[in-house]
UniProtKB/TrEMBL annotation:
It comes from Effusibacillus lacus. This is AbrB family transcriptional regulator.
């Protein structure tokens, strides 16, 4: 496979909240208790993306990653189309 894993889970009640247990998925990408993540909600596509938080290397303007992320989201389809060329 190409590094993509599909898992089926049910939304369950966790305390007063709703949640999905994804421990196996977190382990696959090296995330553990206390790690920071970014959550991107793509409402129109019905997607929620959880990814490791990117730390800003010394000398970089933190806005660089905000602009990069915005452009990657805006041109996502184009970028994905280029990867197979």
């Amino acid at each position: 496979m190409n590094g993509v894993t599909t898992m089926n889970r049910k939304v369950t009640r966790i305390g007063n909240s709703l949640g999905v247990a994804i421990t196996d998925a977190l382990k696959q990408v090296g995330l553990g208790l206390g790690d920071d993540v970014d959550i991107v909600v793509r409402k129109e596509q019905g997607e929620i993306v959880i990814r490791k938080r990117v730390t800003v290397p010394e000398g970089f303007d933190p806005r660089f990653f905000d602009i990069l992320t915005k452009n990657m989201e805006e041109y996502r389809e184009t970028i994905e189309g280029l990867k197979d060329r």
